[in-house]
User: Fold this.
Amino acid sequence: MPVTPAPAAPPATAPAAAKPVIGDFGLDLSAGKHSVKPGDDFFAYANGAWYDAFTIPADHASFGPFDKLDELSKQRVHAIIERAAPAHAAAATPEQQIGDFYAAFMDEAAIEANGLAPVQADLQRIAAANTGQALAQLFGEPGFASLFDVQLPADFKNPDRYSVFISQATLGLPDRDYYLKDDPQLKELRGKYVAYIAQMLSLGGASDAQAKARDIMAFETAAAKVQWPIEKRRDVEAIYNPRSKQQLLGFAPGFPWQAFLEAQQLGARQELVLAEYSALHDLADLFSRTPVTTLQAFLTFHYLSSHAQYLPKRFDEARFAFYGQTMRAAATARALEARRRCGRWGAR
Assistant:
């Protein structure tokens, strides 16, 4: 008979009670600048002292409570990995897998020496995808960009089952306003995004990177024009459109849906839910009208961008410069301006 081990003995002395991380709850009145009249600038009245004194860490474009929690989580995960990496755990254990993965990720000399060799097979697949069917298959595979997302949430009208939802995908910029809004900051950001696309393509060895970057931007802008705005996407009734696969094929024939769904291992699925209904039709039509070379460039750029942290340092640095600094700084500036406007509006 198996022997049940005895329970571990309690420690000789009880550990000291952990100090609360957050501390006291409530409104921090010391954060405000009370020399300012709330009717003149409520943001400064409520937050001015904190705003004047706080310094954003040098490696961040913005920093707040959620960033602090994110940093804490990363530190804890890092500690777990650091313990696993040198442990030389038994083969096939989680500790061994974590340790090996971390060691490979941290071996910068090997990453630099390998260059693009580890991703060359995927890049060649993109270059060889010269038909709509082949491109749609890549759109459906993990690790590649797409005009469409597939999710399997609980059905909105029947929580006892899961449904296949097809929706518009996020492009290289956060939402359609970034492509379309007549705003000086966003116009400047769009120019920097095109420069980033060209930079990433050049690093990947593409010829005519500048022209391809402009084509990709024109393609994504055309997609943004037909995508639904965020306020419309919050309408649960509007984004719940159950359809059969045959109905989808008849409604949006411009896109090879079967190849896309087979890549998602959903080729046999007959019942679907279409989210942004008109956008799916228009995006499928856009796909059919776009030159193969532009779609290949779109896939190549996003592949290099999304895998930059696993590639040589020049790729990772380029991505961080745009998404980690330029993009976050622009988003922070827009949010700050919105808060300031809200403060002024509230005083009227």
